Amino acid sequence: MSRKSSFNQEIIIKEDKSGPVDTKTPGRKRCPVAHQNILQATSKLLNEIGFSNLTIEGVAAHAGVGKTTIYRHWPNKASLVMDAFLAETAPQFPYPDTGSVIRDIREQMKLVIKVLNSPNGKTVATLIGASQTDKELAEAFRTRFLAVRRTESKAILKKGIERNEIPSNIDADVLLDTLYAPLYFRLLIKHAPLTEIFVDQLVNLITTGLNRTNLST
Amino acid sequence: MSRKSSFNQEIIIKEDKSGPVDTKTPGRKRCPVAHQNILQATSKLLNEIGFSNLTIEGVAAHAGVGKTTIYRHWPNKASLVMDAFLAETAPQFPYPDTGSVIRDIREQMKLVIKVLNSPNGKTVATLIGASQTDKELAEAFRTRFLAVRRTESKAILKKGIERNEIPSNIDADVLLDTLYAPLYFRLLIKHAPLTEIFVDQLVNLITTGLNRTNLST
DNA sequence: TCAAATCGATACGTAGCGTATCATAATAAA
DNA sequence: TTTATTATGATACGCTACGTATCGATTTGA
Questions:
Q1: Which residue is closest to C5 in terms of CA–C1' distance?
Q2: pLDDT for residue B7 is more than 90
Q3: Which among A2, B55, B122, B162 has most CB atoms closer than 10 A?
Q4: Are residues A120 and A82 in the same domain?
Q5: Nucleotides in chain D near protein beta carbons (<7 Å)
Q6: Residue A196 pLDDT greater than 80, yes or no
Q7: At what angle do helices B172-189 and B119-131 cross, to 10 degrees?
Q8: Tens of pLDDT along B92-150?
């Protein structure tokens, strides 16, 4: 049936410190080289054959480790892929500082679509896809990917409010959903392309509003 | 590896006419009762155990047919589920006629979230999820679900343009993505609830625009 | 020195896939 | 009516990958 192992048990505790760990327990330490090799093999295979064709046994073979070792470090395929994905993708969405918050957002959204149009975007899509049948992966995606980005985004919105570029009574989550959900929707459904023009249209519509669109063009 | 069977081969040809088929070929006809039983068992199991736990063999057992028969009618699990899903969900998104197109859209969006918050919504989510690793299912979802709804939506937008409620130079796909993508995004990510208030906030933001939001409240 | 935890390797049972085969039943054309 | 053709349910099959268990060997702290 479904996997029951937890994401936040031995994993987080022992894995978060990937440097020298000061545990008091006896016994042989986990080999950080094996750990890294597994993550790198996972990233490589993800880009080459995609999430669905990736198997734990394949990762083990490419990383030169026993598959037992992988199961000691990660409870399942989804959590392994999540770690590999975050290590490679997390630092790719910085907001610029152009002087205008709306412009900052617009430019950052163009960075986002660059990533979403790359092999990493395919991984994002498959992770969201697999989240639909894997509650722990879904939780990991929300807290370790989305929430991190939301925190950054809300800081930008706060700056915009302080500068009177954005009304102070706005619901940040509603605004951010309106801005970013269309990007992910096109990533997932593929009914239309993710272009910079699309970002411009989106930001123009949301800032100007439907009622005034014909006045402003 | 992946399944190669086509959605549009013997399937569409023989299945679209679920009534009495006027084929010139000899031999025994497909049993329409078995076909219907399979679809109904699939719908039932979908709501009970979800897409990921649903197996072809389970459907066969519940429908009282051999699994061979299922494989003769559908190339894989995804296409079977798609058919069962469409049969039950397709007619659930009508636009009302309130006199105001914006209000029509707002009310229809509230119907949409009703469905998305029901077990059918879970099925939508898992279908989009499975689409990430199944190209044929993705294509079926686009053409048989999304495109049908887009056609209806564009007719409403056209009415709005004729009534001068909506500017004529608007890009319909951009506007529809901005309106509906946030609903599906919340369905898929579950970072925030899908409420009627959310629909109101969304429509208000998009019609009024960020720049004027503080003027209008 | 000894207990504990790791490592890679290997074997195992399980689930569900999609296919093949079978005798039987239904149907259209000859 | 006969014959060719196709569908049906049942069953068996090979396959892949899962996740677990076990093994001797190795590393480490107490």
A1: A27
A2: no
A3: B122
A4: no
A5: 4-11, 16-22, 26-30
A6: yes
A7: 110
A8: 889 999 999 999 999 999 999 999 999 899 999 999 998 898 888 898 899 999 999 99
Residue B143 included in any domain: yes
Which residues form the domain of A133? Answer: 90-216
CA of B27: nucleotide with nearest C1':
D6
User: What is the pLDDT confidence band of residue B50, given thresholds at 50, 70 and 90?
Assistant: confident
Does some domain include residue B59? Answer: yes
The whole-angstrom separation of Cα A169 and Cα A18 is 42
- The Cα–Cα gap between B176 and B194 comes to 17
* One domain for residues B110 and B47: no
Count: domains in chain A: 2
Provide the pLDDT confidence category of residue B24 given band limits of 50, 70 and 90: low
**Whether residue B65 is found in the same domain as residue B104:** no
Q: Would you call A53 and B169 a contact, using CB atoms and an 8 Å cutoff? A: no
Of all residues in chain A, the one with the smallest CA distance to B55 is A1
First to last CA, chain B: 56
* Residues A67, A160 within the same domain: no
**Least confident residue range of A24-33, A55-64, A198-207, B52-61:** A24-33
Same domain, A25 and A76: yes
- Choose the weakest-confidence range: B12-21, B62-71, B137-146: B12-21
**Is B5 contained in some domain?**
no
Asked whether the predicted pLDDT for residue A211 surpasses 90, the reply is no
Chain B closest-CA separation from residue A24 CA (Å): 38
Q: Is B4 buried (19+), middle (13-18) or exposed (0-12) by CB count in 10 A? A: exposed
User: What pLDDT is attached to residue B91?
Assistant: 73
Give yes or no for B145 touching A (CB within 8 A).
no
pLDDT band at residue A130, thresholds of 50, 70 and 90? confident
A169 band by pLDDT with thresholds 50, 70 and 90: very high
Q: Kindly report the three-state secondary structure assignment for every residue of chain B.
A: CCCCCCCCCHHHHHHCCCCCCCCCCCCCCCCHHHHHHHHHHHHHHHHHHHHHHCCHHHHHHHHCCCHHHHHHHCCCHHHHHHHHHHHHHHHHCCCCCCCCHHHHHHHHHHHHHHHHCCHHHHHHHHHHHHHCCCHHHHHHHHHHHHHHHHHHHHHHHHHHHHCCCCCCCCCHHHHHHHHHHHHHHHHHHCCCCCCHHHHHHHHHHHHHCHHHHHHHC
**Domain end point (choices A34, A60, A87):** A87
